[in-house]
Amino acid sequence: FTGRQLLQLFGRIRGLHNNRVGECVAATARGCGLTKYLDRTVHNYSGGTKRRLSPAAASSPSCSASRALA
Q: How far apart are CA 34 and CA 51, in angstroms?
C-alpha cells in the first residue's frame, strides 16, 4: 500500500463517501506533513514518517479532523 491508498482505505472503512475521499486524504496529508510521501509505499517509510501516518489514518474519515491538525 502507498500512504494515499492506506488513507483512502481508512476513510472508506469509516464511511467517507467516494467523492470526498481524495479531498480528505489531501487535507489530512497536508495537516500531518505527509504530502510528499503519499505515493511511496508505506514499507519504505522511515520510522518517523510511519509515526506521522498513524494519527493521519486515525483522522482520515473526517475532513474536519484533518483540518484541526493543520
A: 11
The alpha carbon of 46 is separated from its chain's Cα centroid by a whole number of angstroms, namely 16
Cell 483540518 sits at which residue?
67
Q: How many CB atoms lie within 10 A of CB 49?
A: 17
Q: What is the pTM for the complete model shown?
A: 0.80
What is the chain's pLDDT, residue by residue, as a tens digit (70 residues)?
Answer: 999 999 999 888 888 888 888 898 998 899 889 999 999 999 999 999 999 999 888 876 556 544 444 4
Q: Specify burial of residue 54 (Cβ count, 10 A radius: 0-12, 13-18, 19+).
A: exposed
- Cβ neighbors of 64 (< 8 A, separation 6 or more) are none
